Amino acid sequence: NICRSPMAEAVARRTLADQWPDRRLRIASRGTAAFNAGKPADPRALAALRASGYDPVPHIARQIDDADFSAFGHIIAMDRANLVTLTGWTPAGFPGRIRLLPARNGAGIEVPDPFHADADAFHHVLRLIEKGTRTLLEEVLGPPSMNPAGHP
To answer: What is the pTM for the complete model shown?
Structure first.
């Protein structure tokens, strides 16, 4: 998890802080495979975040584990392949929800992995993540709070 999920974590943290400043959620990114475990976020992902005004959090990739299913009520997949992996991994009795990142119409969207693409793909992926994250937070938390400037 060196591309999409650290981008989604940064977007979710900032969107939560900006739009729901009075709410707290536990937010973290994980991968479904361990082959990037221990690595930092991809420099292209960090560049796309910074170009859009995000302050990326320090990130070291790690694979999801059984404890994460106890710690998080919502586990969000970026594509259908990871959704299938997560669904098959889910411990019995998991009370939360596993789903694709939602789109504005409520249906899941697949966020393509930009790793083998050019830098423009990271910007495209960031836009998809921004839209889906906003929708997800609205579904989980309700309408956004008013920020100090008085804008939702």
So the answer is: 0.91
Give the pLDDT confidence score for residue 103 in this predicted structure. 75
The tokens for 142 are 């309700």
DSSP string, 72-128: -SEEEESSHHHHHHHHHHPPTT--SEEEEPBPTTSSB------TTS-HHHHHHHHHH
Would the pLDDT of 149 be above 70?
no
Name 53's Cβ contacts closer than 8 Å, sequence gap at least 6.
none
Give the rounded distance of the alpha carbon of 2 from its chain centre.
12
- Within 8 A by CB and 6+ apart from 51, the residues are 123
> What does the block give as tokens for 146?
């008013």
Tell how many helices (H) and how many strands (E) occur in the chain.
5, 2
Tell me which residue has tokens 């998809």. 128
Residue among 35, 42, 92 at smallest CA distance from 63:
35
- How far from chain centre, in Å, is Cα 108? 13
Half-sphere exposure of 91 (CA within 13 A, CB side): 14
Q: Which of 147, 133, 150, 151 is nearest to 23 (CA)?
A: 147
Count of C-beta atoms within a 10 Å radius of residue 50:
12
Give 4's DSSP letter.
H
